[in-house]
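tool=predict chain=A
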Amino acid sequence: MVVTGATGFVGSAVLRRLAERSQEDHGVMVRAVSRTRVAAGSSPSAPSGVHRVAADLADGRSLRGVCDGADVLLSLASYVGPDAERCTAINADGTAALMTEARRAGVGRIIHLSTCAVYGPGPHRGQDVGELTPAPVSAASGSRLAGEGAVLEAGGLVLRAGLVLGRGDRWAVPALVDAFRRVPAGWDGGAGLASFVDVDDLARLVVALAFTGRAEADAPGVLHAHHPEPVRNRDLMAALAEHRVLPARPEADWPWRGCLDALAATPGWVSERQFTLLAGDHWYRADAAWERAGIAPGPGPLSRLGPAARWYRERGGVAPG
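tool=predict ok
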């Protein structure tokens, strides 16, 4: 099995799951691919059954041979920053090069992680994949949609995830912290619903799909990959306050236009588009992925916040670097 993006936020969680599985089943061998052989601060010795190799999606030549002998490819590497050229190089061209290599090596099962951000600004309220037409508005989401095309051509499965929470999250909760500093009130009643998933639950889903023996497991297509139950904004903000990531929510509640005006009037890194993604309706049906994997989604991301609370308190509202 090959895992790209193995030292990233989601990739490292998947790798932990796979390392546990390889200890239980010594027939499971994992090739962990990242731009650097060992992540900063990690142990130089990989877990049993995990072999680390260095390759860069932005350099197609470095991918030669990474899939040799593998039966499964977990394509988890991406770039979500503002550099449009780098977005194209990694998310679009790099993914296409990886798919070419996977096909050359005869990989039988490909699972690729994408994002629901490809749908654009919304609002979206409970639609399934076939009920929406992607309309990306950023270089990151546009290039990830382009990468999806290469995966589907290679016969792979694309997982579009909602917002991912957990230790290592540098975007979702830090963005909420920055936005709340600038808009210190309830956001239009906190009624917005969005799709979230805990990073360890997402890793559990990816690994289950990698190993399931169900007949439809290798069918190409696109599935949503987050918890099936959306999270209401006021519930998420209350849970973050309970864990001392946010101050207690004030009694004041501001209408949507007032929230946007306050956001624009106070300097910060979260844009109006990002604020709308966090506070408005952006939720999607996600039962099919869990059914295909044959596992339960669990109690939901709010119940998983505790282990990540210290990470979030220490990080605060710092912009992703």
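The radius of gyration is 19 Å. Residues 84-105 form the longest helix (22 residues).
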